[in-house]
Design goal:
The protein is of the alpha/beta class and 443 residues long. 44% of the residues lie in helices and 14% in strands. It contains 17 helices and 13 strands. Keywords: Transferase.
Amino acid sequence: MSDQWLFMTASDLGRGIEAGEVDPVALTETYLEAARTHEFSDRIYARLTEGRAMAEATEAKRRADMGQRRGLLDGVPISWKDLFDTAGVVTEAGSALLKDRTPDTDAEVLVNATQAGTVCLGKTHMSELAFSGLGLNPVTATPPCINDVGAVAGGSSSGAATSVAFGLAAAGIGSDTGGSVRIPAAWNDLVGLKTTINRISVKGAVPLCPRFDTVGPLCRSVEDAAQLLAALEGGRLADLHGVSLDGARLMILDTIAFDDIRGEPLAGFNSAVERLKAAGAIVERKEVPEIADALALSGTLFAPEAYGVWKDVIEANPSVMFPEILERFRSGAGISGPDYVAGWRRLEAIISIWNERISAFDAVVLPTSPILPPNAERLLTDSDYYVTENLLALRNTRVGNLMGSAGVTLPTGLASTGIMFLGAPYAEERLLRLCAAAEDALS
């Protein structure tokens, strides 16, 4: 039975613990053994936290035996992207700039999740300082895609996704600044939740762009995403009972989202939309021309903030960085203060237009990524290919970050393709209900 545990949803494992059919200690030992012995373990986990995991699992077993479980995920082992601080454990955010950095306290989200009873298995590899959607990291490690081990897994939460996809964690916790939860989730056939900015604490998380940084889970089901959302913020659980797509209004965003899209992502999206319509959803295609303006502002807003956060650390030791990431950070130096301020003022005006245009719909839908996972070796040897694929990878997901939306990606059923649902800010519960119904239709 233990091998089957590795590919069950986190929620089903929790129900197994509740029923006395799954021992949290044996479950954690099973995941740790899998993580130690898997052929790609060193490319997925930056480090395991075995002592902590076993101690937490032992306490979860004690609570289960006494009928004092803290919730459905009490005793369920999950992984953490290596930008979330772990007390006494190295946290390097995928960069030699932070080599051997060891925090004294846990990140606030880890504190909350631990209080909910989850078991911390270890820290997963990621794009350097979270500044790439590809998941390519020659400085530390590049996790492989579940569907093509010669391809990248998507970033920046690459190890978070692959820890789940390869059966080395029941769920992974990542961050999303421009698509870093949703891209690796989509490319590895998982569910990924991008939360609204400031909904979940980023205290104790290594920053990239604080005005865009968000925290979210990568997992096997919408139910898992809802459970993890509650655990991460120490809040109430979304009610997913009685969900239906009947009469749900979905808007396909036609602006930009389908430009240069490759055949497989388009086929996966179109197939998913047909199944949503068959389940009762009302689907309309709409243009929002201002989105093109918003995406054009990306370089004005993301890079200057990222470089402003990291400039002193980077310039003290730039030679240890992956050159493509270094160049991307340094591009922020060329943006003037007035242009940055003007860019934010324009973006805020576009957000108002966006919210008005989408107000009649339950969600906006678009392909999560217009491309499939690129080849890792070619990314290392062909700079033009790297730049093109990196920008395309994050283009569609970045819409959600720029507009301040909550977002969920679901697998379409075609390998490494996803359909993304964008909803109103701070309306994750409503979006998760919609996506639970969509998940049923797509399965």
